[in-house]
Amino acid sequence: MAVIINSKTDIGLVRSSNQDAFFAAELEGGAAFAVVCDGMGGANAGNIASETAVRLISEYVVHSFRLGMDSFEAEKLLKNAITSANIEIYGMAQKDPELNGMGTTAVTALVEGDRAVIVHVGDSRAYIAGKELAQLTRDHSVVQSLLESGKITPEDAKSHPRKNVITRALGAEQEVISDGTEVTLKEGESLLLCTDGLSGFAEPSEILGAINIEDKAAAVEELVRIAKSNGGGDNITVVLLGLSERKG
I need a labelling partner for 67 at 20 to 30 A (CA). Which of 3, 31, 45, 239 fits? Predict the structure, then answer.
């Protein structure tokens, strides 16, 4: 069983630069790893935060991964990678006034066999898609907190003035808390990692319809197209992972 990876990032229609970054690759034994980050901060600070996070997290995971890790070990690996990157990015922001206040989301996935372990910080998301679309991550955001407390409705959330304000980010504080979850991938299902440039500009039904296109390279193109056709108000990054019998 191999993991087939398709991915795409796009600046969108409004932003002057792309502050998203990602890495996705096959590991030994047919396992796979992916990380998607959405940077924030003035000038190019967001780019630096997301690109640094992707580089450090992926280097940590690629170096430390070994086949046969149990669920606890796999989640700990991803959390340690995020913690390590946070220390570095926070230190950079403290030393350089131009980088002060920078930060980034991160959503990571480690797939081995039919098991996917996901760890995230911020509002970049992971979904599992088959006959239905299910969100696997809980946004660390102001709007999510308002939703859970019943102060706003899901409809209010779509246009809330603080919908882009996140409550956790790598680099924002000396310590960061990441959340982990696990899911079993069945035949015909896909795992989607994305930034809010997709989730904020596409309905769940649109996302599901695109993912279920048989040609997964075309599926990621369609996901980006949908987000842009709905306004493209942010950078868009998607990574799609699915199981296949074929190798390579």
Answer: 239
